[in-house]
Description:
Blueprint: H1 7-13, H2 27-38, E1 49-54, H3 57-66, E2 78-85, H4 92-95, H5 98-115, E3 119-120, E4 123-124, H6 129-139, E5 145-154
Antiparallel strand pairs: 1-2, 2-5, 3-5, 4-5
Helix pairs in contact: 1-5, 2-5, 3-6
Amino acid sequence: MDTDKTVLNVIHSRKSVRHYTEQTVSREILETLVRAGMSAPSAVNRQPWVFIAIDERQTLDELGSRLPYARMLLKTNAAIVVCGDMKKAPDEWQQEFWIQDCSAATENILIAAEAIGLGSVWTAVYPAKDRIEIVRRSLNLPDHIIPLNVLPIGFPDNIDKPKDKWNPGKLIWNKWV
Ligand SMILES: Cc1cc2nc3c(=O)[nH]c(=O)nc-3n(C[C@H](O)[C@H](O)[C@H](O)COP(=O)(O)O)c2cc1C
């Protein structure tokens, strides 16, 4: 694990990684990433998330061949599916927040992966009904668990590079003018 990077350095070097080496991702690494996800902030600290860590070839292949924009799952040996738990968001008002909460957890995982020398990419599931159904069926998810995304996890082969997105025109000081 590369522990030398500062937080800002890691944030700026994170990128969507879609090309991986064949090196196996251990359960220890997956747990490290899920721990980072669980440390995210959430509305009223409800933590309305569940993380499905996948390291079975058959399941990765099933998702990779069925989900339209997640074919890199065919080349990784691990993935994390970030899901919202609607039982932790019992009323409509609290349900409004599960996407923000799970998105914060997702970004933590993406940053943590970069920090320890791994790569990942957010592949969208929610709100596409067909994709939700594919993931639900492949992972036997009950109705109250909604998959937000699938994050393939692997060791990067250094093809993917970070983009410089700094745009001073998108920074507004004090009031809209
Ligand atoms: C909500 C969301 C959905 C995304 N869906 C996909 C996807 O289905 N497949 C994919 O390859 N990348 C997906 N991405 C990754 C974006 O394409 C990527 O973040 C963007 O091009 C910026 O590149 P970067 O992550 O390297 O900075 C998604 C990102 C977000 C935030």
